[in-house]
Write a structure and sequence with these properties.
Two copies of one chain form a homodimer.
Chain A: E1 13-15, E2 20-22, H1 24-41, E3 50-54, H2 59-70, E4 74-81, H3 90-104, E5 109-113, H4 114-118, H5 122-128, H6 136-154, E6 159-161, H7 166-178, H8 182-187, E7 191-192, E8 201-202, H9 210-219, H10 236-250, H11 254-269, E9 283-284, E10 291-292, H12 299-310
Helix pairs in contact in A: 1-9, 2-9, 5-6, 7-10, 7-11
Chain lengths: 311, 311
Amino acid sequence: MMKCRKCNQKAVINMRHHKLSLCKSHFLEWVGDQTERNIRKYKMFTRNDRILVAVSGGKDSLALWDVLNKLSYKTAGLYIHLGIPGEDHYSTKSQILTEKFASENQLLLHTVNAKQEFGKTIPEFSESNKRAKSKPCSVCGLVKRHTMNEIATKYGYDVLVTGHNLDDEVSVLFNNVLAWQVDFLRRQTPFIPAKVGLTPKAKPFCRFYERETAAYAFLSNIEYITDECPFSEGSTTLQNKELLNQLEHKRAGTKLAFYLKFLNAKKELFPEHEIDHFSDELFPCAVCGQPTTAPGKCTFCRMVIRDQELT
Amino acid sequence: MMKCRKCNQKAVINMRHHKLSLCKSHFLEWVGDQTERNIRKYKMFTRNDRILVAVSGGKDSLALWDVLNKLSYKTAGLYIHLGIPGEDHYSTKSQILTEKFASENQLLLHTVNAKQEFGKTIPEFSESNKRAKSKPCSVCGLVKRHTMNEIATKYGYDVLVTGHNLDDEVSVLFNNVLAWQVDFLRRQTPFIPAKVGLTPKAKPFCRFYERETAAYAFLSNIEYITDECPFSEGSTTLQNKELLNQLEHKRAGTKLAFYLKFLNAKKELFPEHEIDHFSDELFPCAVCGQPTTAPGKCTFCRMVIRDQELT
């Protein structure tokens, strides 16, 4: 029998990369402690800050919201209904689970419905952008980034947090390394400080394996959506994750080391950019006012307007 | 039937990453042309230089020697008998094949026998270095690097070339990236210029897939050793190659893009080191006189001397 390192009771999880087995209660405690440690290590936020948690209804974001809440951080949630269909009405089902979590924990939840706010669902935006060969995933990212910053700014939140876990970060890193996207490498970080018009962004779960956030959500009896987004099937991200899992299987800790050593190497590779992640000049969008890299309309508003012209 | 792009005859090879199918004679010509292009692109050497080709008896180094010879470069070979056993007397068999190639092409071949020159074979060095947990591969690399530079210096060769192909380079790159070994990344390059006491090193085959060098050797009727070194079984290098092959299979050209984009990104990542690859001060070894990073004896001489003391 695998035993908990702290109390010698039966362990529920063995984390090979940490050489650490823990029972249920010590694992849940450990996740809280490690999250706190990450928040401090990367100077993400304090208990004075008002935190907006981007929640998808999946295990990572709901677990994160739960952990932050239990650690007595001041949080509210943001759910964006993207209008993604799928067998079980993916978006609607996610929203119901998110609302359930919020009400059970008496937490404020902002909700934005893409169709109602911007006139179209993600699949509809994607469909009408076919000429630009947009994939749903890139359109989806655009809508989410725009909405998250809009709500954070509108209600004066101090920081925006997302549930990205280590596997997410490592998959992105792997992709950026394969194509040596130097600018993307420069910008990948657990915490992006504020810029005029841009709320700071933090990823407090960036050092947890997906398996650990899933175990936390499961052991905490959090009801979350287990389906993958129907559009993610066959995506490069999922392909990369599969390959990285093979590496991890052969050499436990490979993913964590890859990520942490990257963060370390960045200090040497990009010394002058360490603090100022966006050195480019930003301009307010002529329509929505959010910062964008060139004068005129931002990419999001160009998409929304172009779509209105087409229909 | 797959057709040669140049002459419409039956093709013998299809290179998906180049969208290029070629017949036997146009493929052999293409390999020569591309090699010439690489030599010029990375300013490796000219037809005035005396070139020492490190030959293992495998497909890559014999193919490289053949190509350089046919391109009218002034070459000689260097074979190092490392005393590696295996079913078919790996080292001895390799030496016979190398000598056969040299005599058939009337080319000068230097041979060095590790046992005779340094007192021990690679397995013996490795065995007696157990306390230092040396693996045969690291001892082997040390002996080869020492011997190659020794012979190149002794006989006044202008440049030392090795048969590393794209798969070799990409496997090393992948390893260095996984561990973010910034100094190793900085030094990985198709051409290392001269330093006091160090002969320049070039890898003219660095842009060829292993499959291409194998096809060249096969189609040129070069007899080469097909066994893998018995010590390479289960090595990280082979594991990495397997993973990278999966990536390549899904997206043809991934390996080539990974390598070429890396060489490009280096200009941005390491601007000041672009030309001066070894910025560290070097000292002549007190025993062999070859350059080493600290005053006193070099790692090779320390190993050889320690071994003499032990026996």
